[in-house]
Design goal:
- The chain is an alpha+beta fold and 432 residues long.
- The chain has two domains: 220 residues, no CATH class; 107 residues.
- Helix content is 22%, strand content 27%.
- It has nine helices and 22 strands.
- A six-stranded antiparallel β-sheet has the order 4-9-6-7-8-5, with helices on one face. Strands 14-22-18-15-17-16 form a six-stranded mixed β-sheet. Strands 3, 19, 20 and 21 form a four-stranded antiparallel β-sheet that branches.
- Helix 1 crosses helix 4 and helix 3 crosses helix 4.
């Protein structure tokens, strides 16, 4: 039987368009809570948001009730525009001719053959996006200086504060690169290292020579780790070294909130309202510490509901700290207010604080963002569709290969419109 990509496309439409299997991944909480911009605001270059950054200041004071006194000069408000670029994320995958042939017989055979592939592609790409929403243009983990013993692989312990189980579970075969934590000097010229094994109990990843680009050398990485702390990045998400070091992904919430310089064309060093709130705590995160952070946000404009994203271990500590501030009225829902629920809600000085556990948030981190001041922008949500082809044509032949290809594509970025109303909390040490 001849393999026709058009036949595969047609069967994809029949099998999934009207009776789509569950492609919704576990790691999609930001997508659930943060809206994508309307289609009329999407474009492939950037999203432009005008910002009012200062108050009007041309006031005149006087107790003179007799004369026509002079007025002070007007001092208008300061405005600028944040230009937020959408970042591409593309997942490339292939299926062999034999698998494609089996899938080509009918809609049923297509589902039987292709369901696991399509589901996993969706989940894999969604997970990378969700990680980027938080940690884009930042590291995905930090490894302190440590002694290393290489067997067949190089075992590397990730610091507890920078560990997120959901980030590393299922990451075997992914490729990562390393840089010196203090100055972003590349390790082994950003050559790749493959994650061969993950032990979530000991927060250890086991590394082998990479399979993307040029493979790294384990002894070179060993020398670096034994000399200094290193940050870890996904392969391809960074380039350069030290002064030329640069990111190729969106700026995540941590980057936006902790920014003190120019980001999206606006200088947080000049405009206080464009600078977020960075809060360092010690020990467990309690509601008192959360409300102290929220107080900083309220003093700088937060006056509405907020979303708090934290690691599940942090959420467990906060759940045990549940007290009178919890909302528990006619709107009671077992999903939102009972112990062991999915989301805890507290009423604070700003309004409702929804506390959301998320396994890709690092154990030492917590993010509190204004619910109505965060959006996702870009040209495209995550899709199987090739933007250069009609909708539904997702398969293509691969020259010189005995197989067909398909991709997932997204162009987007997260944007906090009012950074002063957001907070990033670090230094958390959970009870377990």
């Amino acid at each position: 039987m001849a393999i026709d990509t058009g036949t595969l496309d047609s069967l994809y439409k029949i099998a999934y368009a009207k009776n789509e299997i569950d492609l919704i991944p576990v790691t999609k909480k930001v997508e659930e809570y943060v809206p994508f911009v309307p289609s009329e605001l999407m474009n492939g270059k950037h999203y432009e948001q005008p910002l009012v950054l200062t108050n009007e200041a041309g006031f005149t004071y006087s107790l003179d009730t007799q004369s026509a006194y002079d007025l002070n000069d007007s001092i208008g408000m300061s405005m600028d525009s944040a230009e937020v670029p959408g970042a591409d994320l593309i997942l490339d995958s292939t299926i062999g001719y034999n698998q494609a042939a089996r899938a080509s017989h009918s809609a049923t055979s297509f589902k039987t053959t292709m369901s696991a592939k399509l589901e996993n592609m969706k989940k894999s790409a969604q997970k990378r996006l969700e990680i980027a929403y938080f940690y884009g243009s930042d590291n995905i983990g930090n490894a302190a200086q440590q002694d290393i013993t290489i067997a067949t692989t190089l075992p590397l312990v990730i610091s507890t504060a920078s560990w997120a189980t959901g980030m590393w579970s299922g990451s075997e075969n992914s490729n990562v690169v390393f840089v010196k934590a203090s100055d972003n000097t590349s390790v082994d010229s950003l050559r790749s290292f493959k994650i061969a094994k993950v032990n979530v109990d000991t927060k250890t990843i086991y590394l082998a020579a990479g399979t993307a680009g040029t493979a790294g050398t384990l002894t070179t990485l060993e020398t670096a780790i034994e000399a200094y702390a290193c940050n870890i990045h996904f392969y391809g998400s960074v380039s350069g070294s030290a002064g030329s070091f640069a990111y190729a992904e969106m700026a995540g919430m941590k980057k936006i909130i902790t920014n003190t310089g120019t980001l999206f064309g606006v200088d947080a060093g000049t405009y206080d309202l464009y600078k977020g709130n960075s809060v360092t705590v010690t020990g467990q995160l309690t509601m008192q510490k959360v409300l102290s952070a929220v107080a900083k946000q309220c003093q700088r404009g937060l006056d509405g509901d907020a979303l708090l994203f934290c690691n599940p271990q942090t959420w467990a500590d906060l759940a045990s700290n549940l007290a009178a501030l919890r909302r528990f009225d006619g709107s009671y829902s077992k999903k939102k207010a009972s112990n062991g629920s999915e989301v805890l809600e507290y009423v604070g000085m700003n309004g409702v604080i929804s506390i959301i556990p998320y396994n890709i948030v690092k154990e030492g981190d917590c993010f509190i963002i204004p619910k109505d001041k965060v959006i996702r922008i870009g040209a495209s949500e995550l899709t199987f569709n090739d933007p250069t082809k009609p909708s539904g044509q997702i398969f293509f032949t691969i020259p010189g290969k005995a197989g067909v290809g398909l991709r997932m594509y997204s162009n987007q970025a997260i944007f906090i419109e009012a950074p002063a109303q957001a907070a990033y909390i670090s230094g958390i040490v959970n009870s377990l």
